[in-house]
Amino acid sequence: LAKRSGNQFVVVELYKPGLNFTMQTYSRGYFDDSFIDVRPHRELFKRRRNLLGYGITMANVIQDSNSTKNHLPLEDRQELQYDAVSKVCWVYAKLAFEMLNATPNYIYSYRWGYQVNGKWSGMIYDVHAKKADLGTNCIIFRDRLDMVTFADKVAPLRMRFVFRQPPLSYASNIFYMPFSTNVWIGIGVCAAVCTVSLYLTSKWEVKIEKNPYQLDGSIGDALLLTMSAVTQQGCFIEPRRAPGRIMEWVFFAALMALYAAYSANIVVLLQSPSNSIQTLRQLAESKITLAANDVDYNRFIFDSYQDPLHASVHKRIIPDQGKPQFYETFDGIERIR
Predict the structure, then answer these.
(1) Residue 141 confidence class, pLDDT cut points 50, 70, 90
(2) What are the transmembrane regions (predicted)?
């Protein structure tokens, strides 16, 4: 609206927040040979931040429990395990309503919105049909861009698999893992040194006396006694003199300590999970049974990917023959346990 004021025209914006609201004015500028814009911001959303209590309807998706309809507007923090995404979005949206001095209204739907046989459902339909002014945290699909306008995300939304790593014994050779490579090499070197020492002492003993129960001075008998010690087995031949027996005692004592440490590590490794699955490809190639939470977007999301990796995951969850692997949250967690 332009109004003459002396030798110039004063330009004022006129608008209503709603049909039943009184007319509001906002100074736009004045005209004196040329138009002078006095607005601090030209963007409309920066200038009209007071909607004077105008009602804005928000579409909310309820999929876990109907009780969310009661807890959501009250914000009583009850049953937080149900419809967590919708409750988080509601908190952020209410802050926006307070900043705009708008009155929040809400409607509920059981789907985010998908096109089936040319017809839309859920939140997308509510917004497109003007039953709601906005919806929150709806995943961007290409076909949805023709129906609604997307802004920034309110809360992060990602689809992830929750699983228990397979036992370490399924993915690795746990019999080699208790000791490092250097320790295994050290054990082999010690066994070789012990064999040579027993061989030398047995040759010395044979020169002094001969007995059917003593080593005959050959490398074979020394190696046989060493292997008996390594495998924790007895041997009917043994050194008869102090030098050989001292060497035998030291070797058996060292192996006893090694076996105690080895057994303790094996027990720990048997109870340890592995870290063999770090990527989606590794998960798809594993023998773990894959399933999905029984919500509507999980039944549609896999169809939007055509690459071999996602297609293989899709076939494992929704096989061509057999029952689809969809479970409720508590049932799925119990199966993982």
Answers:
(1) confident
(2) 183-201, 249-270
At 213 the pLDDT is 65
Could you tell me if 295 and 220 lie in one domain?
Answer: no
- Detail the DSSP E strand segments found in 62-197: 103-109, 115-116, 119-120, 134-135
Chain centre distance of CA 320: 27
60: CATH: 3.40.190.10
Strand 8-15, strand 2-5: pairing? antiparallel
Same structural domain for residues 63 and 41?
no
Instruction: Please count the CA atoms within 13 angstroms of the CA of 329 that sit on its side-chain side.
Output: 8
Domain that holds residue 247: 185-253
Q: How many domains does the chain have?
A: 4
Q: Are both 17 and 96 inside the same structural domain?
A: no
Q: Give the number of other CB atoms < 10 A from CB of residue 209.
A: 9
Domain final position from 214, 237, 253: 253
Q: How would you classify the pairing of strands 292-293 and 326-327?
A: parallel
CB 244 within 8 A of CB 198: yes
C-beta separation of 11 from 35 below 8 A: yes
Distance CA 86, CA 99 (A): 20
Instruction: Write down which residue in 144, 173, 205 finishes a domain.
Output: 144
Amino acid identity at 58: M
- The sign one gets for the Cα dihedral 269, 272, 273, 275 is negative
First to last CA, the chain: 69
Give the list of residues 6+ apart from residue 217 with CB closer than 8 angstroms, or none. Answer: 199, 202, 203, 205, 206
Mean pLDDT of 24-40: 83
Contact 12, 27 (CB under 8 A): yes
What's the token pair of residue 331?
Answer: 């049932």
Does residue 155 register a pLDDT over 70? no
